Amino acid sequence: MTEKEPHHRRIRSFVRREGRFTPGQQRAFDTLWPQYGIEADGSPIDFDAVFGHRAPRIVEIGFGNGESLAAMAASHPENDYLGIEVHRPGVGRLLQQLETEHIANVRVMSEDAVEILERQIPDTSLHGLLLFFPDPWHKKRHHKRRILQPAFVQLVRRKLEPGGFFHMATDWENYAEQMLEVMSAAEGFTNTSPSSDFVPCPDYRPKTKFERRGERLGHGVWDLVFEKID
Fold first, then answer.
1. Which CATH class is domain 48-228?
2. For a disulfide at 219, which of 48, 72, 169, 214, Cβ 3.0-4.6 Å?
3. pLDDT tens digits for range 99-118
4. Binding site for S-adenosyl-L-methionine: residue ranges?
């Protein structure tokens, strides 16, 4: 009998904190999921079939309560958006907003974003990928849990079309510096910043109330936009 090789579990960049649904969020999750939700069943997504047309497709990972995602989708009906968020009350909050504001160009998934990218997002199918304010895992011993790692960057590269963009934003300076270091060393990407560092907040990224409050308190926010060049 041969000894089995040890099974190495992937380090996750998030902790699943379910929290409580409000009655409205629960209703939205129960009734609107069939309209807006895509199941994390491992099968490749046919975006043309899901949205009923062809358009630039943009994925946001970790959309929180969906405030920014809904605003982007409403302002840019020429794009289609897929939001991925493990916190289901946040998904319910976004579903409420999509229904109330009659936003039709958004679909939602509620599972580990890395697994969805690996298993369900076809290669070269995305025009853009958004990673706004991911968990900074600020303690040094937890930095390995940050989602922005070289292997993840190359996964994003596979999913982007040539000329597609990867937009990151964080309010942790240390994480911003790590993002810049990892992305600057990444094969297949070029920094869109003329100074090869950070860019002003693009017009399409809405600022949340938490970000605006942080700015009033003097907190910094760093945006990075890299383009796939091959």
1. alpha beta
2. 214
3. 999 999 999 999 999 999 99
4. 60, 85, 112, 135
